[in-house]
Amino acid sequence: MELSVSAIQIPGLDIEERSPGTFRVRVRIHPFFALTNTFGNELAALGWGCQQLERLHALHKKLSDEARLPGAPLSRDAAQALGLADLIAGDGASSTVGSARAASPGDEIFVFEVLDSYLENEAKELSAGYVSRARRLKDYFGNVVISSITTASLKAYIDARLSGALGPGRSKTASYATKNRAYQRNLRRRHRGVPVVPTPRSFELPCSGSVRHELKLFRQALRAYAKRDDGRRERIGAYVVTHPIVCVELPSPGEPRKRRISDEELSRILAKISCPRKRAAIMLCIYTSIRRAEVISLRNEDINWSESTVLLRAPLEPDPTRPGHMRKRRKTKTVARDVPLVPQALELLRHVCSNTNRPMSRSTTC
């Protein structure tokens, strides 16, 4: 039975295989900051880690005997101020057991810290998609420092996402609307005595556009993390500019839509819809090219019959910075504007408004 070196449990020493042929070693003794390094083989990583672990234990004993051991965790700046040159000088120093690299500013910054701080500050009012993208990045890269993120590891992430090895990137549980449609369909089948056969839910592979958005989130989060504080910007600003996540080539944004729905496809869709208001909403989208949210928010007073236009209102939400005031809702593409109407759209709206005074809202049931 072959035993992996990284499987050996040594307190204060962690070795992780980041990619085939690359091993990440991390040494941490309280209250010192973590020492990290990357090696091309597992034995070299273990040798360097044991060497640094022995050095830190000796420094710990020396400071303890001299009653100079800090009680709080040390940063690099604090160690420098306390005159602990031995602690800083050994970080990333070359050894005889493997090739080590120089200390990196990214050795103190963890991936989860960068992403969580971005969601808490810059992206806290953005859509839920940012949270799910950040979660996928944290699940893959794990609890590692950003200096361990290389171009090779980013390309491995892209390949794994596009191949479906990390899942489709969508929830494996159907949404409420999907489950309700399936429930109603199966209920009608039972009333008619038709056997109900469960239909497995199929998933498509993630497109390159989705992976592109995830890496752009990582890039934005790292830049925001660096410039949020003046001292931090001076310390790691130059490092972030040349970091692999900033320089790596992103996947293509995907192919844009090149055609509109055909008349035959539209006829088949409308034939399956029994609600006349829903059919009217679909036709109004085709006539005007306005968005779904804009269609269902229309009111009678928004239609200008004499000018043949309809007024679209930007959705509002309470302004947290000014109590009692409203502001435009974040992450909405709707802009307040007048949209001209073709004669077919006018006739359609006239027919809908003559039958009811209700808006085309989601609360309307057919």
Written overview of the protein:
By secondary structure, the protein is mostly helical. It has three domains: 5-103, no CATH class; 105-170 and 204-254, Orthogonal Bundle (DNA polymerase, domain 1), CATH 1.10.150; 266-355, hpI Integrase, Chain A, CATH 1.10.443.10. It is built from 14 helices and eight strands. The strands form three sheets. Strands 1-2-3 form a three-stranded antiparallel sheet. A three-stranded antiparallel sheet has the order 4-5-8, with no helix packed on it. Helix 4 (111-120) packs across helix 8 (208-227). The longest helix is centred in the first third of the chain and has 24 residues, at 42-65.
Low-confidence stretches: 90-102, 361-365
The CATH topology of the largest domain comes to DNA polymerase, domain 1
Order of helices and strands: EEEHHHHHHHHHHHHHEEEEEH
User: What would you report as the Rg, rounded to the nearest angstrom?
Assistant: 30 Å
Amount of helix: 40-55%
Q: How many beta-strand runs? A: 8
Biggest sheet strand order reads: 1-2-3
Number of helices: 14
Please state the average pLDDT score: 79
Largest sheet: 3 strands, antiparallel
Quick gist of this model?
The protein is mainly alpha-helical and about 375 residues long. About 45% of the residues lie in helices and about 10% in strands. The protein is built from 14 helices and eight strands.
